[in-house]
Design goal:
By secondary structure, the chain is an alpha+beta fold. It has a domain of about 150 residues. The protein is built from 14 helices and four strands. It has a four-stranded antiparallel β-sheet. Helix 2 packs antiparallel against helix 8.
Length: about 325
C-alpha cells in the first residue's frame, strides 16, 4: 500500500515482526526443514567470520549505500529461510506482500592462483581446524584472509543476485537482508564459508601439519641420535614427556641420600617375666613378683620404720571409798 505521495506506507517494526512470525509458522507446517535467520539481539554478527563477511560487503562503494537497507529486515526476522550451497545462496524474505520474495545469490569460486598463494603463506601457522573455524589464528593471517581483492572474501564482481520483488534497484532490501543473513549463518557454522567459495579447508590444515612434520624430521636427521626433541613432540602432539636425561642423576642423588642416612638397629624384644607357674606375667604382676623375690628387699621393706609415740592411758579416777 502506498500513500498519496507514491511512497510505501510506513509500517511499525512490531507489526513487521508479527507478520514475519505468522508467515514463518505457516511455512514450517508445509516445510519443516526451513531454516530462518534468528539474531540474538540487534547484533548482526559475533564471530570473526561473520563480522569479516559483513565488513567486506560494506567496504565496497557499490554496496555501501544500498546494503544498509537490509539491516532492519534481518533484525526483525524477515529472512524466513536461508540455505548455503557451493557457490549458491537461496533465501525467502518477507516483504510488504503476502507471499515472501525468493532471492538467489551466486558467488564465484575462489581463484586457484589466489588459493595456492594463500596456502603457501599459511603453511606452518595454523594449529588445527577448530582454531581456524573459531577465528583463532595470528593477526598476519587475519590480514591475509581479509585482504581486499586478494583474500578469501569475494569482490562485488564475483557476486550476482536476483530477487522476485518488483523493486527496480539493482540491490533491493531483500537481497541486502540475505547478504547480512549469510554473515549470521557463518556465526553458527563457519565451515559454510569454505563451502560457499568452493574451498577445500582440509588442504590448509593438512599442508600445515605436513610441513611441520618435515621440519621436525629434518631436525632429527642432523642429530646423532636421530631422536625428535621432546619440545618438538610437545608442539605437534601436545604431549609433555618426562626429561629422561635427568632421570639417572635423580636416581643417583636419591641413592646417595639413602646411603648417608643412619641405619637404625632393629629393636630387640624384651623377654617376658615368667612366674612360678611358668606363664608370662602382666606388668603389674611383674612388679609385684620382683618385690617378693627372695634376697631382694623392696624399698618399703628397707625403709626404716617411723616410731610412733603412744600416749599412756589416763589413770582412772579413784572412786571414793567407804568411810
Amino acid at each position: 500500500m502506498r500513500n498519496y505521495h507514491g511512497f510505501p506506507e510506513y509500517v511499525p517494526v512490531a507489526q513487521k515482526r508479527a507478520k514475519a512470525a505468522r508467515k514463518l509458522q505457516d511455512l514450517k507446517k508445509k516445510n519443516p526443514s526451513i531454516q530462518p535467520v534468528v539474531l540474538e539481539g540487534n547484533t548482526l554478527a559475533r564471530t570473526w567470520w561473520g563480522k569479516s563477511w559483513n565488513e567486506n560487503l560494506e567496504r565496497y562503494a557499490d554496496y555501501y549505500n544500498r546494503i544498509d537497507r537490509g539491516r532492519s529486515y534481518v533484525r526483525h526476522g524477515a529472512v524466513l529461510d536461508l540455505k548455503i550451497a557451493p557457490g549458491k545462496v537461496r533465501a525467502l524474505v518477507q516483504g510488504s506482500q503476502r507471499q515472501p520474495y525468493k532471492i538467489e545469490i551466486s558467488i564465484a569460486a575462489l581463484d586457484q592462483k589466489t588459493w595456492a598463494r594463500l596456502r603457501k603463506s599459511t603453511a606452518g601457522q595454523l594449529d588445527s581446524l577448530a582454531d581456524l573455524l573459531a577465528g583463532k589464528f595470528p593477526q598476519p593471517l587475519q590480514e591475509l584472509f581479509f585482504a581486499k581483492g586478494g583474500g578469501l572474501f569475494p569482490e562485488p564482481k564475483e557476486i550476482d543476485f536476483d530477487c522476485s520483488c518488483p523493486d527496480w534497484a539493482s540491490m533491493c532490501k531483500h537481497v541486502a537482508a540475505t547478504l547480512y543473513g549469510i554473515g549470521a549463518r557463518l556465526d553458527e557454522n563457519p565451515s559454510l564459508f569454505f563451502e560457499l567459495r568452493k574451498i577445500e579447508v582440509d588442504e590448509l590444515i593438512t599442508q600445515a601439519v605436513q610441513r611441520t612434520t618435515r621440519t621436525l624430521l629434518a631436525k632429527a636427521r642432523t642429530r646423532k641420535t636421530k631422536v625428535i626433541a621432546d619440545t618438538d613432540i610437545t608442539a605437534v602432539f601436545g604431549i609433555e614427556l618426562e626429561d629422561q636425561g635427568k632421570a639417572p642423576q635423580g636416581r643417583a642423588r636419591r641413592k646417595k641420600e639413602r646411603s648417608t642416612k643412619p641405619v637404625r638397629k632393629p629393636a630387640v624384644p624384651k623377654k617376658p617375666v615368667v612366674g612360678k607357674t611358668g606363664t608370662p606375667m602382666r606388668p603389674a604382676a611383674t612388679k609385684a613378683a620382683k618385690a617378693t623375690i627372695p634376697g631382694k628387699r623392696s624399698a618399703k621393706a628397707t625403709a626404716p620404720r617411723r616410731k610412733t609415740r603412744t600416749k599412756a592411758p589416763a589413770k582412772a579416777a579413784q572412786k571414793p571409798g567407804r568411810r
